[in-house]
Amino acid sequence: MGRISEAVDCAHRSVQYADDSGDEFERLSDRGTLADVLHQAGRVKEAQSLFTEAEEMQKAHQPEFPL
Question: pLDDT tens digits for 1-29?
Fold first, then answer.
């Protein structure tokens, strides 16, 4: 299939870069991507935590468009 562990590492770096940039959209979307990759890797609890974090960020950033 794929190289899941490499994808996890890449997605973690993406979140770090997004946090460093301060770009709210990237911070939110990269967490969603990392959550998806973690879910694919079978790390469901970590994925759920990140999905929840991304949802909360969305609510704070655009309250008129909650998920």
Answer: 679 999 999 999 999 999 999 999 999 99
DSSP 3-state of 1:
coil
CA dihedral 55, 60, 61, 64 (to 10 degrees): 90
Amino acid at the residue 60:
A
pTM here?
A: 0.88
Question: Token pair for residue 2?
Answer: 């794929």
Residue 8's domain comprises: 4-61
End-to-end CA distance of the chain: 30
Number of domains the chain contains: 1
Answer whether residue 67 is part of any domain.
Answer: no
